[in-house]
């Protein structure tokens, strides 16, 4: 499966899962659980990129992804501990975990030659959906603290999306410094 195939499969799975559970509102802890799993997926994909890419720009991007998504997850853990709970599983987070595992396996099998393009296609599709999901959760979360955390995290996700799109242009342009 190509990077576009991975991205399309992820988008389809997440859209179907979210639509299937639209009648079941997620608790704040479940919403944070979905974001937590998405952050873990981003970290896992970035770690594959750190192993496989030869692009210094992509390595810098992947290191930033690892650092910033780990920070968001630490904030989620801290917040849910204040609630006296932890990030909760849901059908959405379970589906996302499975899709992430499949995507990571696919990225891991992608040739070094094709990796950068496949990784960036994956990142763009994933981050677009993550931003959309966070926007939905901001408007539906019941806790002001959870909403604040999501609002504070959103610019980072948008920045990562913008970086991935810019890198995709750069990586696809011969003669530009990679």
TrEMBL record:
Residues 82-101 are annotated as: Disordered. Residues 1-22 form the signal peptide. It comes from the Bacteria. The keyword Transmembrane does not apply. Coiled coil: none annotated. Residues 27-167 form the DUF4142 domain. The keyword Signal applies. PANTHER family: BLR2558 PROTEIN. This is DUF4142 domain-containing protein. It comes from Caballeronia fortuita.
């Amino acid at each position: 499966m190509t990077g576009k195939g991975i991205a399309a499969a992820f988008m389809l799975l997440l859209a179907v899962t979210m639509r299937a559970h639209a009648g079941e509102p997620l608790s704040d802890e479940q919403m944070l659980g979905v974001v937590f799993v998405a952050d873990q997926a981003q970290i896992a994909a970035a770690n594959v990129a750190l192993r496989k890419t030869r692009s210094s720009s992509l390595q810098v991007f992947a290191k930033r992804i690892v650092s910033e998504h780990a920070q968001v997850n630490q904030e989620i853990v801290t917040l849910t501990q204040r609630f006296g709970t932890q990030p909760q599983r849901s059908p959405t987070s379970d589906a996302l975990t499975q899709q992430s595992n499949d995507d990571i396996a696919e990225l891991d099998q992608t040739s070094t030659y094709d990796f950068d393009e496949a990784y960036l296609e994956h990142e763009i599709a994933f981050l677009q959906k993550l931003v959309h999901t966070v926007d939905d959760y901001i408007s539906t979360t019941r806790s002001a603290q959870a909403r604040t955390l999501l609002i504070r995290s959103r610019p980072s996700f948008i920045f990562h999306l913008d970086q991935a799109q810019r890198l995709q242009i750069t990586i696809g342009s011969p003669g530009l410094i990679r």
